[in-house]
UniProtKB/TrEMBL annotation:
The keyword Transferase applies. Residues 9-184 form the N-acetyltransferase domain. One of its GO terms (molecular function) is acyltransferase activity, transferring groups other than amino-acyl groups. PANTHER family: ACYL-COA N-ACYLTRANSFERASES (NAT) SUPERFAMILY PROTEIN, N-ACETYLTRANSFERASE HLS1-RELATED. Transmembrane segments: none annotated. Pfam families: Acetyltransf_1 (PF00583). CDD domains: NAT_SF. Belongs to the acetyltransferase family. Keywords: Acyltransferase, Transferase. This is N-acetyltransferase domain-containing protein. The keyword Transferase applies. It comes from the Eukaryota.
Length: 408
C-alpha cells in the first residue's frame, strides 16, 4: 500500500466487543451487486457473523486503517465437510454395491466480503481474501468456494483474475412472493411433517451423493432456524401423517412418486431491502398488496414488500423421485408459502442446480429470481478427500446440487 501512512491496512479478527457499530456502518454503505441499478442491501440485525455462525468452524476478519482505526472492509468464511462426488462401494458385505457412496471433502466458503466504497480499488478486498485463505489452509481445507452475481464485475475479477478461482457452477435462485392470501394445497397430495431424525435418514440415504451435501446435515435439521421437513405423497397411497411408521418403512416401499423439502427461517438471521426503485414502482406494489389484503378470495398475485427491510424463508433439500415429483414439489411450495405468510415473510427463496429436473415444480417470479448465481471454486490443497474424485474443480456439474441453508 505504498508508503502513505493513511493507507496502511491491518487485517485482524473481528472483535464483537468493539467492532459492531463500525462493521454495521460499512455494511450499510455496501450494495451487493453492480451499482447503478436496483440494489440489494442486507441488514444483519446486529450480528455480523450470523451467516457463518451455524457452520462447524467460522472466522470473520476486518480491514482497519492503522492510522485512524477506521474499519473499511470485512470478510467471513466458514469450513465444513461436503460431498464432492461419488464412488461405488467395494465392501459388498456392508453396502449394496449398486448404490454409490458419497466422497466427502473439507471445503471453505467465503461470504460477506465488503469494502467501503470510499476505499475500493486499493487492494483491500484482495488482502482480505488472501488472509482468509491462509486460515482455510491452516485448517486443512481442500477447496474454497464462493457465490457471486454473474454481473458483479468487481467480485468476479477479484476472484478469477487475482485469486485463481474458476467459474464452477451456476445454480438458479428461485424467488416467489408471499401473497396476502393463502395458497391452496392440491387435494390430490398428502403432506407429512418428518421429525429431524426421519428427515436426516431420508436425506442421507437418498441425497448424500449430491454435490455439496453437508456431512453434518443432522446439525442443519436440528438447528432452531430449521422450521421443518415436509414430505409429499399422492393422496390415497398408504402413507399419511397419522399412519407414518418411520423413514425405514417408507424407503423400503416408497410410492411411485414422492417429494421432500425443508424450510429454513432466514428472517431471524437477516433482512434484505431493495433500494433504488422509483416512487411509482413502490406505489404500484403497495396498491396490489392493499387490494390482495382486502379481497384475498380473488387470489391476486400481489407484489411483495421488498422496498423496506423484509424477511424470507429458504427452501433447502428440495428433491424427490418418480414421474409426479415436480407436481408434488409444487404442492410443497404452496405449503411453504403459507408457512412464510404466517411467519411474516415477503418472499420464499430456494436455490437449485441449473439442470435440476424438479425446477419446473418450483413456482417463482423471474423478476425476483436469478437464473445463474455464479459459484467460483479454487483448489487449496490436494488429497484431503480420498482422491477418487480427482480434481473436483474440473468435474462436470450433476443434475442436482445441495445448497446449504446456513450460507444462503
Ligand atoms: C468486490 C469488492 C469487495 C472488491 O474490493 P476492493 O478492495 O475494491 O478490491 P481490490 O482493490 O482488492 O481489487 C482487486 C482486483 O479486483 C478486481 N476489481 C476490483 N474492483 C473492480 C471493479 N470495480 N471493476 C473491475 N474489477 C475490479 C480487479 O481485478 C482488482 O485488481 P486491480 O485493481 O489490480 O485491477 C468491493 O467492490 C465491494 O465491496 N463490492 C460490494 C460488495 C460485493 O459485491 N461483494 C462481493 C460479494 S462476493
Amino acid at each position: 500500500m505504498g508508503g502513505d501512512d493513511e493507507c496502511v491496512i491491518v487485517v485482524r479478527e473481528f472483535d464483537p466487543s468493539k467492532d459492531l457499530a463500525s462493521v454495521e456502518e460499512v455494511e450499510k454503505r455496501c450494495e451487493v451487486g453492480p451499482s447503478g441499478k436496483l440494489s440489494l442491501f442486507t441488514d444483519l440485525l446486529g450480528d455480523p457473523i450470523c451467516r457463518v455462525r451455524h457452520s462447524p468452524a467460522f472466522l470473520m476478519l476486518v480491514a482497519e486503517l492503522s492510522s485512524t482505526k477506521e474499519i473499511v472492509g470485512m470478510i467471513r468464511g466458514c469450513i465444513k465437510t461436503v460431498t464432492c462426488g461419488k464412488k461405488l462401494s467395494r465392501n459388498t458385505k456392508t453396502n449394496d454395491p449398486s448404490k454409490p457412496l458419497p466422497v466427502y471433502t473439507k471445503v471453505a466458503y467465503i461470504l460477506g466480503l465488503r469494502v467501503s466504497p470510499s476505499h475500493r480499488r486499493m487492494g483491500i478486498g484482495l488482502k482480505l481474501v488472501l488472509r482468509m485463505e491462509e486460515w482455510f489452509v491452516q485448517n486443512g481445507t481442500e477447496y474454497s468456494y464462493l457465490a457471486t452475481e454473474n454481473d458483479n464485475q468487481a467480485s468476479v475479477n477479484l476472484f478469477t483474475d487475482k485469486c485463481g478461482y474458476s467459474k464452477f457452477r451456476t445454480p438458479s435462485i428461485l424467488v416467489n412472493p408471499v401473497f396476502a392470501h393463502r395458497l391452496p394445497v392440491s387435494n390430490r397430495v398428502s403432506l407429512i411433517k418428518l421429525s429431524p431424525s426421519d428427515a436426516e435418514s431420508l436425506y442421507r440415504r437418498r441425497f448424500s451423493t449430491i454435490e455439496f451435501f453437508p456431512r453434518d446435515i443432522d446439525s442443519v435439521l436440528n438447528n432452531r432456524l430449521s422450521l421443518g421437513t415436509f414430505l409429499a405423497v399422492p393422496r390415497g397411497c398408504c402413507y399419511t401423517q397419522e399412519t407414518w411408521a418411520g423413514c425405514d418403512k417408507f424407503l423400503s416401499d416408497p410410492p411411485e412418486s414422492w417429494a421432500v423439502l425443508s424450510v429454513w427461517n432466514c428472517k431471524d438471521v437477516f433482512r434484505l431491502e431493495v433500494r433504488g426503485a422509483s416512487r411509482m414502482r413502490k406505489t404500484l406494489a403497495k396498491t396490489t398488496r392493499i387490494v390482495d389484503k382486502l379481497l384475498p378470495f380473488l387470489r391476486l398475485p400481489s407484489i411483495p414488500e421488498v422496498f423496506k427491510p423484509f424477511g424470507l424463508h429458504f427452501l433447502y433439500g428440495v428433491g424427490g423421485e418418480g414421474p409426479s415429483a415436480a407436481k408434488l414439489v409444487y404442492a410443497l411450495c404452496a405449503h411453504a408459502h403459507n408457512l412464510a405468510k404466517e411467519g411474516g415473510c415477503s418472499v420464499v427463496a430456494t436455490e437449485v442446480a441449473n439442470g435440476e429436473p424438479l425446477k419446473a415444480g418450483v413456482p417463482h417470479w423471474k423478476r425476483l429470481s436469478c437464473d445463474a448465481d455464479l459459484w467460483c471454486i479454487k483448489r487449496l490443497g490436494e488429497d484431503y478427500s480420498d482422491g477418487s474424485v480427482g480434481d473436483w474443480t474440473k468435474s462436470p456439474p450433476g443434475l442436482s446440487i445441495f445448497v446449504d441453508p446456513r450460507e444462503f
